[in-house]
């Protein structure tokens, strides 16, 4: 799982056996180590593709606007279908 700083989900993911990748950041140090810099670069490369995939899903008209109250009970199903349809589109990366 890829997350930004501030997401307090590491314990929940750990209980399910899922790893969590959070970019390193400077606390009191002046500079990140070379390993931390490389780790952040790798996460950034992945993050770009995740953002592109999320943008595809957001482009569906039913999600981009205001969802009518009568469709709220079906919101999970609507999002699932939009995600499935976006997976059927062409490749994100050539």
Number of continuous helical runs: 4
The domain tally reads 1
Major sheet summary line:
none
**Strand pairing plus helix content: what structural class?**
mainly alpha
Roughly how many Å apart are the termini?
24 Å
Runs in which pLDDT lies below 50 for 5 or more consecutive residues are none
Task: Please tally the β strands and state the result.
Answer: 0
What's the SSE pattern? Answer: HHHH
Shape summary: elongated
Portion of residues in beta strands equals under 5%
Which percent range fits the helix content? 40-55%
Average pLDDT over all residues: 84
Rg on CA atoms, Å: 18 Å
What would you note in describing this structure?
It is a single chain. The protein has helices at residues 10-15, 34-58, 61-64, 75-87. It is mainly alpha-helical and 94 residues long. It contains four helices and no strands. It has one domain.
């Amino acid at each position: 799982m890829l997350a930004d700083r501030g997401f307090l989900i590491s314990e929940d993911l750990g209980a399910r056996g899922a790893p969590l990748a959070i970019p390193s950041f400077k606390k009191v140090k002046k500079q990140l180590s070379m390993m931390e810099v490389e780790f952040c670069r790798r996460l950034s490369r992945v993050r770009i593709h995740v953002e592109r995939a999320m943008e595809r899903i957001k482009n569906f008209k039913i999600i981009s606007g205001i969802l009518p109250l009568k469709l709220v009970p079906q919101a999970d199903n609507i999002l699932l279908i939009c995600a499935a349809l976006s997976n059927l589109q062409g490749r994100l990366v050539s």
